[in-house]
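Format notes (please read before filing issues)

Several people have asked whether sequences and C-alpha cells are stored in separate files. They are not. Every record keeps both together, in the order shown below: the sequence lines, then the C-alpha cell lines. Line labels are part of the format and must not be stripped during preprocessing.
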Amino acid sequence: MTEVLDLAGVGIGPANLSLAALAAPVGELRAAFFERTPEFRWHPGLMIDGTTIQVPFLADLVSLVDPASPLSFLSYLRDRDRLFPFYFAERFHIPRAEYDAYCRWASERLPACRFAHEVLCIEWSTVDDAFAVEVRPGGRVLARNVVLGVGTAPRVPAPLRSLPGVLHSSEYLPERPRLLAAGDVTVLGSGQSGAEVFLDLLRRRPDGGLRWLARTPAFAPMEYSKLGLEQFTPDYVRFFHGLDEAVRDRLEPTQWQLYKGISAETIGEIYDELYQRTVGGGWPGVTLAPAVEVTAAGERDGRIELTLRHVQQGGTATVLTDAVVCATGYAERDLGDLLAPLTGQLHRDGSGRLAVGTDYRVGLAPEVTGSLFVQNAERHTHGVGAPDLGLAAWRSATILNEVCGRPVHRLPDRTAYTTFGLGGLDE
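Then the structure lines:
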C-alpha cells in the first residue's frame, strides 16, 4: 500500500521551508516537501557584497511564531559559534548571503525536505480520497493536503524579451563581467534590486556609460515608518482580504512604496557615490531618469535600441545601449501544467485567478475533500504582504493549524495598533 501523507509541499523556498520547520515537531504529521533544484538557494544572482535583507532577522523561518525553535536564526548562529560576533555587530538587518546560508542550514536539518525531486502535476484521486502528486523521480505520491510554494518567476517587459544583451536582475552576478566590459549599460526598475545593481555598476564603472530608468514617478524610499509597516501584519491581511475584489485590484498598485521602494540607506549610498564624482567640478557620466517607460525595443547596428516615453510629460525619445538589466520584478508562476488535472475543480475569481480564503486554502469543488493551499501566490487576495518574509511564519502556522485541525501554534488575535476598517470603531 502507498502511504498517504498528511501534507505534501511543492517547492522549497522560504515559504514552504518555514512550513516544514514549524511542522517538524508535530510527531503525528506525515509530511514531505519536494523541490526540483539540488539544494536550497535564494536569489543567487543578487548576492552582491554588502546587500542585506529588507526585514529584521526575526523574520526568519520560525521566530515570529515559535522563537524557541531549534531552527531559528539565533539557533543557527549558536550552532556556528557566531552569537557573540552577531551580538557585537548590532545588526538588525542581516546580509542577504547570511539569510541564504541560514535557510540552507535549516533545510539540511529537515528530513521532510526532498531536493532534486520535481513535481510534474497534481490531481484528485477519488479512489484514494487524496491528491495524487506525480513526482520525478519517485513516481506517484498521495497526500490529503497539498501546499504550493513554487515562488515567482522573473518578469521581463514584453518589448525586451528574446533580445540579445538583455537580462533580468536575478542573473546579475554571473553576467557582471560582461556588463562591465560593455560600452553602455541601461538598468530598468526603481525597486531595491534595480538600485543595488545600479550602485554596484556605478562603483565599478568609473568612466560612466550607465543609465537608470524607471516608470515610477521618483526613485523613492520604501515605506519604513513603524505605523506604515503595520500593513504587513495579519490584521491588515484580514482587512484586505475582506475587501471587494475590484477594490483590492485598485488598491494594490497604489501601495507600490510598501514593497517596490528603495531602502533609504541604498539611496544615500548612490547619492554619495554620485557626489564624490563631482568633487573638483563636472557631472558624473551617468543618467538617472524616473517616469520613463520602454515602449519598444529592437536591434540596430549590433546594439539595443530603446524607444522611451515619459509618462508625465509625454513625447518619446530613442537611445542606443549595449546591455539592459531588467530589475522589473517577479510574477506569480503559471500553475497551468501543475494544476491542469484539477482545472474543472478549482474556484476562480472574476479575473480567472485562484480564489484563496483567509486561511490560504484554494476553493475547490465539493468532490475534492482534501485541501490545496498556496504560499506567495495570493497577492490579489491577501495584499502586498503575500511575498513578505515577515509574514512567512504566521502564514505557515495558519496553514499547519488547518491541516492538523487544532492550534499547533498559538496565533495572536491582534497584531497591530492600527484599526483597519470600521469594525473596531463601534461603541
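For reference, the curators noted about this record: The CA atoms of residues 3 and 258 lie 44 Å apart. The radius of gyration is 23 Å.
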